[in-house]
Here is the input.
Amino acid sequence: MRRLQGLVGVVALVALWWLLAVTVFAGGGAVPTPWAVLSGMAHDGWAFYWPNASATLGAALQGFLWGNGLALAVAVVVLLVPRLEAVATQLAVISYCIPLLAIGPIILVVFGGQAAVVFLAAISVFFTTLIGALLGLRSADRASLDVITVYGGGKLAKLRHVQVISALPSTFAGLKISAPSALLGAIIGEYLGSNDQGLGVSLMISQQQFQVSRTWGLALVAGLIAGLGYALVAVVARVVTPWSSGRSV
Here is the structure.
């Protein structure tokens, strides 16, 4: 039922797009019809989209791994050393609140090139995963933790046998949101001119040249990749945490 509802939503969105293109925005050229966008994508072909998409996807994947890996490590450290919680939380909030377009030029000057794209992708996912992991680690069953204590287990034993398992559902919820966020961070980094290839670079060039159909096509490809990333993490979450699949988002 949920998949059917999602399909109906997509069809309704495309229908609305088509209706607006032929009525409200007809003649202006700013909103092409879906068919015009698909025709433009077919004309540009695999040779245009794949190199750009793969460059952005590679940077987003690196940022996804770095940002989430750091977030998970910080969450574990905070759990073992509670005094660090305030500092870690403040840093996470700062990373979330700083606009990427504001910090992007600074990162570009400091790191330059591909490293700046990866950094922006990493900072885009840090907050979400850290908060999800912390909430999950703290949701561990108190009785199970007491059993570990009775048998002489310490913090590491509680973490390994109880808290990590308890944290998996909320951590995967954060990872699902992080997948599109990493792609967005990478595109913004490319859009700021820190690379010579990628979806962000192609979007900027197509906008400057007023290639409307190509701009919409690139946006559509970016949306599809983001959706696939979310879906891939969701599938992994369903396999790893089958007990929480009924309440996953």
Residues 147 and 153 are 9 Å apart (CA to CA). The chain has a mean pLDDT of 86. The chain is about 80% helix and 0% strand. The radius of gyration is 22 Å.
